[in-house]
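Margin note from the TA: students keep mixing up input and output lines. Inputs are the sequences; the output is the structure of the whole complex. Example:
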Amino acid sequence: MTTARLVYADESGLLYDHPYLEMAGSSGGNWTRVEDNVLIPLPSGSEIFLLPQRFPVGYDSKKRGFVKLSEDPHHPQSKVQAVAAFMAPAHTQILTAAYHGEENAPILPLFSYTALGWLEDRFVVAGVRVDPLVRQDIDQFEQEKLEKMATSALGLHRHNRLIQHLGTCALTYGCPAAKNYFLRRWEAPLPTSPQCNATCLGCISLQEGDQICASQERITFVPTPDEIAEVAVDHLQEAEDPVVSFGQGCEGEPLLQGKTLIEAVKLIRSQTDAGTINLNTNGSLPQTIAELRDSGLDSIRVSLNSVREAYYHAYYRPRGYGYSDVTRAILTMKSKGGFVSINLLTLPGLTDEEEEVESLIRLLDETAIDLIQMRNLNIDPEWYLREIGYHPSGRVVGIPEMMKRIRTSHPQVSFGYFNPCLNPGKERATS
Ligand code: SF4
């Protein structure tokens, strides 16, 4: 077991390590002890969140039990707060934070809450780096250079609404993909759709109820194929390992703009065949994916919170499509020789539950998916599990064991976090 110590905050938000309680974690709502081999130093660029009206939970190895910390051992009678880490991109959580919520504790905002501890004079988290690419590492971004390059591009392209939108994304919201567009490298975003045909519990661009708020403004217009191509062609021809991706956090479902996307992809591929054109999608319209593939689309990334239909429907609350359409979309892209990733929205306790892992392996058997992107599900874990009607179905094998099983059963499947450039560094003739 771990020697990492519980980290908690006092009333004013100052962080402390507990004098003797061990760091604990949570998996599917169950508190669990932490093994040292799942701990890594807190990645730079991560944030530490205070969890309102939630008591920290640690493990007392003397009493052999979990302990809810209700007062500050350094200042008796003063209140304490639980804390969690929001890890930097490219890292997947293995355990979420262990805490005990008060009766009317507010629902936590749309972030992920990874277990945090203190070990050998530094913060540690129960997580793993799943992608070596440094695309969104905080030390890759020089603000001054970004502002200079963005300002010049925005001045040059006043007529292009999409470039102006990406300017706000990069300079106001700090979107790393939009920043990389202006810095002319790696993956650039092509948001296009104000509408969606799903109503995900954890949608970050549109929340209909008042329980939680969306963390991003949704795009309000549909760019023209010319506006899209102007962004994409320059990027594909000039950027290092270029990828351009439809389907961003600041939009609905791009497949609903199928006609525009098909025209845009044709326009892009008529000017260059460098780099990769990718579509991040909920996979709802297989026929549109077929037409996009025929137009020159290289890859798709289909988001899934679970490969168990009931949990999928309970989370996505799809309108006019279902889980079977999603698997058909994957098969369609594969049947046309396209590259397919799944964006596995990872929550420890559900994603690594034996039944889920076996279902995922069956999906890999049936579909020959190429890449599993392990992105943390940004949601209040307890609220989410309640909302989808989660019932533990048996053993939880753990995220590392889940990945090991898939590597054994499907060695051709890789794990990652980012959409790959399928033809890196290949400069091709432009027409
Ligand atoms: S599919 Fe995407 S845009 Fe649509 S509701 Fe879900 S998260 Fe939001």
